[in-house]
Amino acid sequence: MSKTLDKLLALAESQIGYTEKNNDKDLDAAVGPTDGNGNHTKYARDLTAMGLPGYCGAAWCAVYQMWLEVKTVGKEQALKTLGPQFYNCFAVRDHAKATGRWLAAGATPKLGYRVIFRQSHIALVTRVAGGRIYTNEGNTSNGTAVVRNGGMVCNKSYPLKDSSILGYVMVDYPEEPAEQPKRSGWSQEDSGWKFYNGDTGQPVRNAWYKDGQDWYWFDGAGMMVRNTWYQYKDAWYYLGDDGAMCRGQVTVDGKWYIMDNAGRMIVEPVVLMPDQNGALQYPGLAG
């Protein structure tokens, strides 16, 4: 078994139990307070960030397989394998047929192949033994039947001669995994700005990031938040038009606010004291 295939199988195993969310909050959590049936996943979010159609909120069994493939061999090779319409199981099948990668039902697949089911569902073949195929699949649920909209990542198994199997997408993996370039710094994307951590290549999410002298807040999708109030640890902050946390005087909807040097809105009564030059100073705004 190649190191690339080892990497793919280990990645798939690490995703077992991941559950779809009702919205874009807490997408990185395997399970969390926003679990539900809304078809929102980190897999769709990540593919969308790469410029691919992730379709967050739609059925995601094929999107999950594309995510595994991109993480293992890179975006370019993944598109060659699963095709530009990777989000549609039957389009993946048609692409495999057109490129000579299709293996008809009844044959024995290899590890790393993708199995396509009649129910418009797709899974990764992780093992073949005892007349059965063992799979790792997204948007399914536990049990013996093919489930195409179950909301979880699960390991399952089926008889090789299961009538639900249409066939397999043949995938060959190189000995060594492809070196994935890591994104770094600011990136303007369709819906705004993201900041990528050069150490991991991942965008900052649900966190503050300091760039120079300015602080920025990024939401769960990794997008910079701007032109809005944000409550963090019992304090209110205002993020300006450029996304930077505001300090000092802020005017919002015609109303006047004062933020201290840490960006927190001043809400308690204050006593204004003159400095040595006679200028009035707000507490927390000195210097």
UniProtKB/TrEMBL annotation:
SUPFAM superfamilies, sorted: Cell wall binding repeat
Q: Where are the transmembrane segments?
A: none
User: Keyword Isomerase: yes or no?
Assistant: no
For this UniProt record, give its keywords in alphabetical order, as a comma-separated list.
Repeat
Answer whether the UniProt record assigns the keyword ATP-binding to this protein. Answer: no
The record's Cell wall-binding repeats, renumbered to this chain, cover 226-245
Pfam families named in the record: Choline_bind_1
Q: What is this protein called?
A: CHAP domain-containing protein
